[in-house]
C-alpha cells in the first residue's frame, strides 16, 4: 500500500514540475520579449440593430379572422385538450415532518 501511494505522489509531483518547466522572461529586462496578447474581439461584432416587424394590412387580417370564424384561442378545435390532473402526493415521509 505504501509503495502505491509513493508512486502516485511521485507521478503527481512530476506532472506539476513539468507544467512549471517553462521560464518566464524577466519583467525588469527591457530586452525581454513581451508575451503576445490575445486578439481583441468585440462583443458587438455580430450585433444586429432591432428592426420592427412588418405590419400586416388590417383588412386582410380581418378577412382571415372572418374566414377562420374566430381569433387565436377562440377558433373551435384550436385549443388543446386539458391535461390530466397531477397525482396527489403521498403521505408525508420522514416521521410526518413536512
Folded structure, characterized:
By secondary structure, this protein is mainly alpha-helical. The protein is built from 2 helices and no strands. The chain has helices at 2-19, 58-68.
Net shape: elongated
Quaternary structure type: single chain
Order of helices and strands: HH
Please state the structural category.
mainly alpha
**What is the beta-strand fraction?**
under 5%
- Low-confidence stretches are none
Helical proportion, percent range = 25-40%
Question: How many helices in DSSP terms?
Answer: 2
Radius of gyration: 35 Å
**Quick one: biggest sheet?**
none
Output mean pLDDT. 76
What is the count of β-strands?
Answer: 0
Question: CA-to-CA gap between the ends?
Answer: 48 Å
What is the structure about, briefly put?
With 98 residues, this protein is mainly alpha-helical.
